Amino acid sequence: MGRIKIMDTTLRDAHQSLWATRMTTAEMLPIAEKMDRVGYWSMEVWGGATFDVCLRYLKEDPWERLVELRKRIKRTKLQMLLRGQNIVGYRNYPDDVLRAFVERAAEAGIGVFRIFDALNDVRNLAAAIRFVKKVGKHAQGTICYTTSPVHTVEHYVECAKRQLDEGIDSICIKDMAGILSPRMAYELVLALKEELGIPVHLHCHATSGMAVAAYLKAIEAGVDIIDTAHGPLSFYSSQPAVETIVPMLQGTEWDPGLDVALIEEISNYFEQLRRKRGFRWEACIDGTVTIHQIPGGMVTNLIRQLEEQRALDRLPQVLAEVPRVRADLGYPPLVTPTSQLVGVQAVLNVLSGERYKIVPQEVKDYVKGLYGKPPGEIDPQLRRRILGDEEPIDVRPADLLEPGLSKAAEEIPPEFVEKEEDIITYALFPHAAMEFFKHRESAPKEGPPSPRPAPPQAPGKSPASPSTDIASTVKELVHLARQYGITELVWEEGEVGIKLQRDPASDDGNFKVELRLPRK
Q: Mutual orientation of helices 430-442 and 420-428 as an angle, nearest 10°?
């Protein structure tokens, strides 16, 4: 018992949960050094959906984001969410890709790898744990929390013990849907502390409204670390606010001892960012989540799928179908990628009018065992309907995969490879990577322009007057500032000067432009 350590999720899971992972690197960097001084045990800044979204939507290099954050965050450990054999994607990748990813991530600054598998199948965790330990970093095992007839305290403890045998340094209870009750939080943490002898970390989403109470009971049971986010990115489908947890523990033996004034200053920054970007702030509770167990991001996907089919009125039927599909498939925890599999199948069951009339290939692969071993038994009739006489595999799924790095290196055009990490990126997301590489190739390469001397003039002549190209020059400079995350840029040529200043909390379009023109 003693001070509680806190991991901050603001720069990863919090904005993934509430802002669709759309916070840019340029919006993170101005506040990173202040966050480094708060006193967090670690800061989660990478992994999960951030890698994919950086490439596909923000047109940013996720590797560069990590490097730039590490330059500014020097005291606090950087943490990432690693999807086991899925790495940061949605399927299993071969071991050579996983090994290269872990090695590069460690070199770029990740000190703590939270490693999880959607099915809690230790076979999908073992290689990642081994590679993390080999590079000398903290390997945090994970048990994805859910409820079902097979998910008991004893089941979770056994799952954690198998991970301990693989060499983990700590264990995290990952409550991705926000369904962990205070009573179960106390019992599970107590059992893990008694049986494992390693630090226990608790990660709760606030979707059901139970997270703060679950944290308090877990603290009483001896939990070592909990996850919080700064206020503007907290609660609902994110984590509880650090502004709630710290005062709650002040004056107790568990007081985390964080800098409250600095926390408030940082939260003000994110509040201004939230307003200027127009991000919605959800102040509500989903009381049904304990039944359907759907994480916030999955609900958004279901709504979008139904809207595309003009069937949003069928959402209550889909929510009711999700638990039935989950039971049929052996009670998988609903977290990437199994949440997507169950959700899509539930939508198809409802819209087609016949259960399992349409079965996506991913669900067939799941039933075949290509995602791992389900916690419970898949309905035998459903298995026969999907697989026929074919038997499920009984080996580690990744053992069936061919090496991927050499293939990626052969496929990617060499003119698009600027660093070794590009090959890893392509191996993970070939299409999104190529789109990003093409975007990067077309962007200016010279970096921020530096002051240049005025061009030579004929004797007796003054420098040339500014041309009507100033507007296009300003546009080019704004493009550079966006591309490189620059908040202040000065460009000069002769007596013409252009100065850009950007509010760090502003959206991409908000720049202040000052012109210096020659006198006539």
A: 140
Main-chain phi, psi angles of 369, to 5 degrees = 100, 10
Predicted confidence at residue 519, as pLDDT, reads 58
- SS3 of residue 138 by DSSP: strand
Look up residue 389 and give its amino acid: D
User: Strand order in 488-493's β-sheet?
Assistant: 488-493, 496-502, 511-516
Tokens of 472: 């296009």
Question: What digits encode the pLDDT tens for the residues 353-382?
Answer: 999 999 999 999 999 999 999 999 999 999
**Coil, strand or helix at 5:** strand
Query: What is the residue whose two structure tokens read 């998910």?
Result: 151
Q: Which of 331, 330, 317, 308 is nearest to 377 (CA)?
A: 330
C-alpha 497/C-alpha 516 separation (Å) is 5
CA–CA distance, 426 with 437 (Å, rounded to integer): 9
Query: How far is it, in rounded angstroms, from Cα 180 to Cα 261?
Result: 31
DSSP letter for each residue of 380-393 = HHHHHHHHTTPPPP
Distances (CA, A) of 371 to 259, 320, 332, 403: 43, 25, 11, 18
Adjacent-strand bridge partners of 135 = none
Cα 483–chain centre separation: 22
Measure the CA dihedral 101/106/112/118, to 10°: 0
Helical residues (DSSP H) of 81-181, grouped into ranges: 95-108, 126-134, 153-166
Instruction: Tell me the C-alpha distance between 182 and 115, whole Å.
Output: 24
Residue pair 25/18 in contact (Cβ under 8 Å)? The answer is no
List pLDDT tens digits, range 320-329. Answer: 999 999 999 9
Q: What's the pLDDT at 484?
A: 46
3-state class of 220 per DSSP? helix
b/e code 89-103 from CB counts within 10 Å (16+ = b): bbbbbbbbbbbbbbb
On average, the pLDDT of the chain sits at 88
Q: How far is residue 48 from each of residues 14, 284, 502, measured CA to CA in Å? A: 11, 24, 29
Distance CA 338, CA 345 (A): 11
Task: Please measure the distance between the N-terminal and C-terminal CA atoms of the chain and give it in whole angstroms.
Answer: 75
Residues 6+ apart with CB under 8 A from 423: 100, 405, 408, 409, 412, 417
Residue 373 is given by DSSP the state -
Residue 1 DSSP symbol: -
pLDDT digits (tens, 9 = 90+) for 9-22: 999 999 998 888 99
Are 110 and 137 within 8 A, CB to CB? Answer: yes
The owner of tokens 């001070």 is: 3
Question: Rounded distance, CA 413 to CA 437, Å?
Answer: 10
User: pTM for this structure?
Assistant: 0.82
What pLDDT was estimated at residue 494?
63
Q: Would you call the peptide bond into 337 cis, given omega within 30 degrees of 0 as the criterion?
A: yes
Each residue of 433-445: pLDDT tens digit?
A: 999 999 999 877 6
Helical spans, DSSP H, in 429-510: 430-442, 470-484
